[in-house]
Design brief:
mainly alpha, 5 helices, about 70% helix, disordered C terminus
């Protein structure tokens, strides 16, 4: 990732993009593991219900840093940046498939 300037609009754009990538990555990795939203919710250290996972995946609510870390460990992701990079790659594949 490149260094982000202190420009508020640039930070906002990067934050929105990262949020979308996290949402996409959670959905994609959950499906790859053949987990339902309810099953993923039950696997968390502090379990959540199916609706919460759905809200995270569609962007209606945000997960905490601890919840994101827990999900990364469930999916076997080594770090946050790899999760974002995989989300970005998944977006490219989705765009190509829908074209």
């Amino acid at each position: 990732m490149t260094t982000v300037k202190r420009n508020e609009s640039v930070r906002k754009a990067h934050t929105i993009a990262a949020r979308k990538q996290i949402q996409t990555a959670i959905r994609r990795l959950r499906r790859e593991m053949n987990l339902t939203q309810a099953e993923l919710g039950k696997k968390l250290v502090t379990p959540v219900d199916q609706a919460t996972i759905s809200n995270w995946e569609c962007g209606k609510s945000d997960l905490s840093a601890c919840q994101l870390l827990d999900i990364m460990m469930i999916f076997g992701q080594p770090n946050f940046l790899s999760l974002l990079e995989q989300g970005a790659q998944g977006d490219l594949v989705d765009e190509k498939q829908s074209a």
